[in-house]
Protein: Cytochrome P450
Organism: Haloarcula rubra
Amino acid sequence: MSEEQLTQTIYSSLQTRVTKMSTEKANEMAPQPPRTSMIGLLQYIGEPLAALEGITDKHGDIVTVPIGTEKLCIIANPKAVKQVFTTKASSFGKGHLQNQYLGRIVGNGLLLSEGDYWTEQRSKIQPAFNRERLSQYSDTVAELTIRMTNDWEDGDVIALDKAFQPLTLQVLAKALFGIELGEITDTFSRTGHTISSRFDFTELTTFVPEWVPIPKHRRYHRAIAEFDDALYDLLEDRRSEFEATDSEGSPDDLLTMLLPTCDNETIRDEVATILLGGHDTSALAIAYTLYLVAKRADIERQVRDEIAEATDRKPTLETLEQLEYTENVAYEAMRLYPPAYSVFREPTEPVEIGGYTIKPGTTVVLPQWLLHRDARWWDDPETARPERWAEEDDRPDYVYFPFSRGPRGCIGRDFGMIEILGAVSVLLQNYDFSLVDNDPVSFAPALTLQPEDDLEMRVRSR
Ligand code: HEM
């Protein structure tokens, strides 16, 4: 069956399903759009961001949406988001959809593991993110950013959304695993890209079960196999080195912390989680922060002044901690263009959220994309106003969570901020960036919030 025929078949089956489910009684569930609107929902297939906006605009900020055989509950209400992340967090797991889609890639690593095993792994990994280590990581960010720009020529046009993917991969590999990725950076970067585009939600084939042998799935399975081969080679080398040296001679990094107590499969899952979960998100956050700087002369001036005042050399952790305005620009970039644009959970038991009962089997969607731009909480939401982060405000909590919140919040939050501030500082010390096109930017959401077209900038040496 061709991809086109398959798309047509899925479309028809979705239509049947949506019509059927919409006639069910809503009883205690969060409200479900009425039948006519459900059919209207089909217009959104392939446009997940417009769908989120359209559905909640029409039907409220807690709404049940049946899609195919799945039932989603979109929650764009801050009090209810807080319940899911904190007071009722113990009634939720990562859920069957995330396991089905991401399990093969990240296995039982931190992102998907649950219960006591997750607690144990998180406490083994957490020390890798303490302050002393963050200070070393900021040096790595600065060094590798400088090294990346050695290939840039004055006047080059660079696709920013792609340019920082190899950088953030190399930073993670070097800082956390003591690995110089060197030539295999391209393998990881390419496979990371193939894996991410498997989840391009603007394509209907993304909803096709993974066992169906369409070309996109074959590429995806090959990419995972290539990624695994490269990863296991690295792990075996490091384990042999580790076993051949006494513990004092071993490097002091996260990999060395895990080697004595974890087998290669366990470490593979944690390393894959960190590499795949940590590099694309940070690379996009760097790109979108620079996009705001290039787009707005007022923001650029204040960021440049602040960086120049903090240092004229390679930035250190102490330098980065002085960059309050620049940090607020990064917060605005992640408000408007959150690299992770939705968080997903599933109840493990019936649970009351925002006055409705949500049952196991329903995937809860907590969309940063909506909460970060909601005019009920944000003044002039579509405009980047870094100063809003320095003003008094009465916004409810839980309207902003680019790194998620609660016990399952991002372990790499501080690391990610160091990458953004470190890379942006080094780049602005050495270059001017100007937009070539692509303004305003439009999106093709995949695993992360990818721009639809390359985010191209012309770079000029300073
Ligand atoms: C701007 C950069 C980043 C963003 C926006 C981001 C976003 C997120 C989000 C939204 C989650 C929660 C997912 C959920 O609740 O289901 C998460 C979890 C996670 N992130 Fe990040 N992340 C970033 C950088 C990083 C970095 C640099 C690393 C690694 C050094 C990392 C490693 C992880 C891990 C391991 C988890 C799972 C944590 C757990 O469940 O215990 N992230 N991230």
Observations:
- The longest helix spans residues 264-295.
- Strands lie at 62-67, 70-75, 92-93, 157-159, 343-347, 351-353, 356-358, 362-366, 431-435, 456-461.
- The two ends are 55 Å apart (CA to CA).
- The pocket of protoporphyrin IX containing FE is lined by residues 110-111, 122, 172, 273-274, 277-278, 281-282, 285, 339-340, 343, 402-404, 408, 410-412, 415-416 (CB under 6 Å).
